[in-house]
Every structure is written in C-alpha cells, then in structure tokens.
Amino acid sequence: MIKQELSDVFRLLENCGVLMDDPCVAADRINYIVENGIADWWNQDEIQSSVKYFRERVACVSDDFMGQWMRVLSV
Fold first, then answer.
1. Spatial contact of 30 and 21, defined as CB atoms under 8 Å apart
2. Number of folded domains in the chain?
3. Which long-range contacts (CB under 8 A, 24 or more apart) does 11-14 make?
4. Which domain holds residue 25?
5. pTM score, two decimals?
6. Long-range contacts formed by 11-20: CB under 8 A, 24+ apart
C-alpha cells in the first residue's frame, strides 16, 4: 500500500514506464529498452523529470544526508 501523499509520485513513474506492477510486462519492457538503447530511454525528458520528482519527494537525496538522518533518529 502506498501512502496517499506519495501516490502522485508513483503514478508518474508508472505513466512513463519506470515502474510496473506486472513482472511479465516489466520483463518485456526491459528487453525492449535494452534492444533499443538504454541511454536513449533513460535520457528522455519525461523519464528524467519523473525520476527527479521521485528523488526530491521520496529518496531524500542530500549532501547533508547524515545530518538529516541524525535529526530524524534523535527524536
């Protein structure tokens, strides 16, 4: 179950083909991407903007990751 406030993030990843919930569909998609060029697929604007949005909302990529974790864990 995905938290409601993050459903838009995962919907974006699904819509651009980064995230799939069916393993057979995922395998077919991966084969297609490999055959047609991983870099071409990965560097598409839609893919990059969706991944960037995911990183900003969910992945918490930061130069101060240690400080952020310490603040969270010392609550």
1. no
2. 1
3. 12/50, 12/53, 12/54, 13/50, 13/51, 13/54
4. 4-73
5. 0.71
6. 12/50, 12/53, 12/54, 13/50, 13/51, 13/54, 15/50, 16/44, 16/46, 16/47, 16/50, 17/47, 18/47, 18/50, 18/51
Residue type, 62: S
pLDDT tens-digit profile, the chain (75 residues) = 667 778 898 999 999 999 999 999 999 999 999 999 999 999 999 999 999 999 888 886 778 878 877 777 775
Label residues 48-65 b or e (16+ Cβ within 10 Å = b): eebbeebeeeeeeeeeee
